[in-house]
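Structure, all two chains, one model.
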Amino acid sequence: NAGVTQTPKFQVLKTGQSMTLQCAQDMNHEYMSWYRQDPGMGLRLIHYSVGAGITDQGEVPNGYNVSRSTTEDFPLRLLSAAPSQTSVYFCATSREGSYNEQFFGPGTRLTVL
Amino acid sequence: AQTVTQSQPEMSVQEAETVTLSCTYDTSESDYYLFWYKQPPSRQMILVIRQEAYKQQNATENRFSVNFQKAAKSFSLKISDSQLGDAAMYFCAYRSHWGSNYKLTFGKGTLLTVNP
């Protein structure tokens, strides 16, 4: 099993460009989330999904879109990149239930110039 | 909304010694879960240990143990016999039992250095 995979690992964008960060899991987990990690800030939730076809906003959703058409995939779209979106992005998955561990992907380091 | 505070941005420990990382949290809920995650330079987030709030017994995983004080809303991580591989950023995290149990709320992290 690959677990949680994210592509690309690194990306540089120019202000105003759009792109999609990919997240895929093969663990058949219901919950999928996107977090961003900024220096001195910990991880903050951007968007999440509790199942295929169901998504909602987290703490810092502005500038990002998500959709979940399958259990396996949960792409994060940057509509018009801004320097404030320079960050490391993590996708995480878990089974439904608070006790269950969230499994994190390896992260994508995004730089917006 | 819940908040998690890690008051030590950086800590250091000598190899083979013991170190304790602090975490406090604020919540009005009675049922929840607490986690410590480790992030080495590889960036991968790794679960170290978890604690269920309704359990009084402190969780232990090999050299890692917690001191969970529910009334004080404190959740510290003790690392015994520290090893060079323990050097990493450590994050304390909170997860609700009900309602918003899809998300983790993280502290800002503590960077642990292990000196040989």
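Residues 11 and 112 of chain B are 5 Å apart (CA to CA).
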